[in-house]
Amino acid sequence: MTDLFTLAISAILINNIILSKFFGMCPFLGVSRKTSSAIGMGAAVLFVIVGASCITYGLHYLVLVPLGIEYMQLITFILVIASFVQLTEIIIKKFSPVLYKSLGIYLPLITTNCAVLFVAKDNITQGFNISEMLTYSFSVPLGFMLVLYIFSAIRERLDSSKVPASWVGNPIALVVAGLMAIAFTGFAGLV
Amino acid sequence: MIKATLMMLVVGGLLGLILGIAEKVFFVEKDERSEAVSAMLPGYNCGGCGFPGCSGLAGALVSKDVKTVCCKPCKAEQRQAIADYLASTVGPDGTNVIVKA
Fold first, then answer.
1. Structural domain for A23, as ranges
2. Which residues of B touch A67 (CB under 8 A)?
């Protein structure tokens, strides 16, 4: 139990997917203008990562390993992830047209969010068992959501503050991202 | 090799089946004008109009949220074509949309 807790804390804070591994930068900069769309994006990524990880984990140990075709891992994982993102898109379009609108092109782009493929592959390379796999694939997107939320809250503040003309918009956002990454290195050695 | 090919076929077929069923179950009524308009836009998804992608602008045009075809990379005649299309086509609510090119 403590092992799982350590795994979760380290995935959320210490080895944060955005700020220390630099995966998933596209939605990090793209959908962080409003906190509401940041939460929506975080939830969509959470759903995709948990779902895709479970399917790819099962697929790897129940199909690829018995057939001895582990070399097909990458391409099957991409297939599963792409289909899962499509499914997420269909569901969001049905149940939350507002969220669908605010995510726009970034929703189908979760397919190419390398955080998803990273978690799916890392579950296998680290040799996780099922409970570790579930904990890991739940806490990595939680870390993603947390950082995306903090970043969008800072950007909302920046919109109403005086920023030098040449820094307005993305330049100051990139500076904020850098400062956040430095701040998150403070968590190193926590566990 | 054959095993790998068969496995991809089966997995791909299964996932396609699931998506096909999901598309039917979660069917959403769509205004076909917004699809036609996004086909007429350049499709760069540049965001210059202030909407997330071309389909965002198309949706806003059809729902009368914007009054001009504010697509920056469009040529003048493309903007005119979109305005003409929207003026001449009647939507499901029985009205057409008048926008400036």
1. 2-187
2. 3-4, 7
B8 assigned to some structural domain? yes
- A67 interfaces chain B, CB cutoff of 8 Å: yes
| CATH code at position B46 | 1.10.15.40
Name the domain count of chain B: 2
pTM for the whole structure: 0.80
Let me know whether B20 and B49 are in one domain. no
Q: Which residues of A touch B22 (CB under 8 A)?
A: 87, 90-91
pLDDT tens digits, residue range A78-104? Answer: 999 999 999 989 988 888 888 887 787
Indicate whether B47 and B4 sit together in one domain: no
Amino acid symbol at A69: I
Distant-in-sequence, close-in-space partners of B34: CB < 8 Å, separation ≥ 6: B55, B58, B59, B61, B62
Q: Is the ipTM of this complex over 0.85?
A: no
Task: Specify whether the CB–CB gap between A17 and A144 falls below 8 A.
Answer: yes
Q: What is the dihedral of CA B52, B58, B61, B64, to 10 degrees?
A: -80
